[in-house]
Amino acid sequence: MTELLAWLTSLPEALLYGAIIVAAFLENVFPPLPADTVIALGAFVAARGTGTEWGVWLATMVGNVGGAMLMYGLGHRYGLPWLMRRFPAVVSPSAADRFAERFKTQGLFAVMASRFLPGVRALVPPMAGALGIGAVRAAVAMTLASGVWYGIVCVLAFRAGANAEQLLAHIAEQQRLLAIGAGVLVMMAVAIVVWRMRSSRAGGGQGQ
After folding, report:
1. Residues 104/197, Cβ–Cβ less than 8 Å
2. Which residues have CB under 8 Å from 140's CB, separation 6+?
């Protein structure tokens, strides 16, 4: 982390924003990339120079949404077989079925909530494309999710003290809280859908 922070600090402001855009973009293409760390430290450096919260946030959104829509397009073009080959450990036939059912029953809510789950969010754009969710609807949902998360990152970075490690610890805690909250909301949505389906079936049975 020290080397990364030193490198970001050495960059002129324009290149710093460029590094943030690239990191946010590549997060969707190469999920192991620690984009949150790069963006958080980039915002931390910008805050101690002439950068602004809005500037860092907008740079992050341009890169992140751009990368997400690229992967959406690839998923839409090549479909589930391509995803299963690219992510064989994650996108098994059963996992694909679960994604399909969740997107079918919960729509944009599932897309948005899933983007807060660290182990899943990189799969959401190509999966949304492969499952035929409309490009505009998917872009809106992913933009809202990324906007909230990276808004928090930027606020924490610009309000942090001089300790970058403490900043990353705060961001990791916020990410855990958001992931828990998203998971709870997804479970609540599933419960509501199941309840409605059972109520509909019960009503249909009584009507007969």
Report:
1. no
2. 108
Query: How far apart are alpha carbons 7 and 161 in whole angstroms?
Result: 19
Of 156, 75, 145, 153, residue with least CA distance to 117: 145
Closest by CA position to 174, among listed 150, 193, 197, 138: 150
Q: Which residues contact 147 (CB under 8 A, 6 or more apart)?
A: 57, 61
**pLDDT tens per residue, range 197-208:** 455 555 555 555
Q: Is residue 98 within 8 Å of 56, Cβ to Cβ? A: no
CA torsion through residues 149, 150, 154, 160, sign:
positive
- State the Cα–Cα distance between residues 47 and 68, nearest whole angstrom: 26
What is the chain's Cα-based Rg? 19
Model pLDDT for residues 49-99, shown as the tens digit of each residue? 888 989 999 999 999 999 999 999 998 998 888 877 777 666 666 666 666
Tell me how far apart the alpha carbons of residues 181 and 55 are, in angstroms, rounded to a whole number: 28
Residue type, 149: W
Tell me the C-alpha to C-alpha distance, in Å, between residue 77 and each of 47, 73, 132, 137, 145. Answer: 40, 6, 10, 17, 24
Closest CA to 106 of 187, 28, 52: 187
